[in-house]
Sequence to fold (216 residues):
Amino acid sequence: MPAPLILHGYFRSGTTYRVRLALNHKGVAYETRPVNLVEGAQRSADYLARNPQGLVPALETPGGVLTQSPAILEWIEETWPEPALLPAHPVRRARVRAFAAAIGCDIHPIQNLRVLKKVSGELGQGQEGAQDWARHWIATGFEALEKLAAAADGQGGFIFGDAPTMAEIYLVPQMFNARRFGVDLDAFPRLVAADAAARAIPELAAAAPENQPDAA
Fold:
């Protein structure tokens, strides 16, 4: 039997949350090892030996340590193909990946913890300025995502098809952050519906930040 997976991450980290969602959805067992980003545990020598970037998550696998959530998620999909998070048709796969990338490349990176610390501290905007920054970029990104979701063929609240795809794996953590930063979600009914449909699945609900062992 292969060694168990060990997920190093932070309960409130959106990127770690994505990986929990995918593993839970596919029924893959894993251990959780908390990395407290607020206390700077990601910069410890022990953690940097696993991930020289000092970012979460890091996933220990029988083949070695994997980093960067997009790469980890693709590895999970290739290793455990069912239930699929990507459609079989190449064009549909590309559309799901594009939706996910709009979050993973364009929204999340500019509102994560280290960026907000820079905005609030060195750039002198304070906590409220940092939250305004996060709200602005999340809402701006959601405007495009709402249009993409409205044009998709989702059923039962989901964006593509009638079950979660990689789109929801990226969306659910970003919706958590949107609520945390006080984004007005009234203008994004399709995104709200997809988030609710995914979180209604018990395995996905179990991945929520408040259900993690290191939740404060």
User: Anything to note?
Assistant: Strands lie at 5-9, 30-34, 58-61, 64-67. The chain has a mean pLDDT of 96. The radius of gyration is 17 Å.
